[in-house]
Specification:
CATH topology of the largest domain: Arc Repressor Mutant, subunit A
CATH class of the largest domain: Mainly Alpha
Helix content: 55-70%
Strand order of the largest sheet: 1-2
Shape: elongated
Distance between the termini: 43 Å
Radius of gyration: 29 Å
Number of helices: 11
Order of helices and strands: HHHEEHHHHHHHH
CATH architecture of the largest domain: Orthogonal Bundle
Strand content: under 5%
């Protein structure tokens, strides 16, 4: 930009210092005026970034490093590409979980452990010599107790994907649909 300002001044026969050219180049950038456009609304536009309304980060940016695991470094693209649940959400759910489990019977804890491990409840019924309908009754009762303890919206919260993940998946699906339309 500064070189363009110097070139235009020389073409008109005016003499300006490089400092003046640099100053006005910065002012043009702050206003969003460049050779590629003048938007101050687009998140990736230089004007928006210079006004501090957005920030562009590299996907190669270091998010965290773990000294305990041999100095493993976590980059931003690794975190976004991960299908694992957000650790903060997981930790929040665990806060009251131990308190809730302490008020349950051994049978109820066994049912919850069976569900968490993904095992069929029929195997637990055979192991405890109970009828499968009895186990299902206790499972429904536990679901009600969980909702009473953690709130009515706990089950949808647990099943819901994080918002950033939903938008990331939507973007991938939109790009896949666009690609399919191109090749039809």
């Amino acid at each position: 930009m500064a070189a363009k300002i110097l070139h235009n001044a020389e073409r008109r026969g005016k003499k300006i210092t490089p400092g003046n050219a640099a100053y006005y180049a910065i002012q043009h950038c702050k206003n969003g005026r460049r050779s590629t456009g003048s938007s101050c609304v687009d998140v990736m536009a230089s004007g928006t970034q210079l006004h501090g309304q957005s920030r562009l980060d590299s996907l190669e940016q270091v998010v965290a490093s773990n000294e305990e695991c041999g100095g493993e470094i976590f980059l931003l693209h690794d975190v976004l590409a991960s299908d694992q649940e957000d650790p903060a959400s997981r930790a929040c759910r665990r806060l009251d979980w131990a308190e809730f489990l302490s008020g349950l019977s051994k049978r109820d804890v066994a049912i919850i452990n069976c569900l968490v491990e993904g095992k069929p409840l029929a195997s637990l019924a055979r192991k405890r010599q109970l009828n499968s309908s009895t186990i299902l009754y206790h499972k429904r009762r536990l679901a009600d107790a969980i909702q009473e303890h953690f709130g009515k919206d706990i089950i949808p919260q647990v099943l819901r994907k994080p918002n950033w993940k939903n938008s990331l998946d939507a973007t991938r699906e939109r790009l896949a649909c666009r690609d399919q339309r191109r090749h039809l």
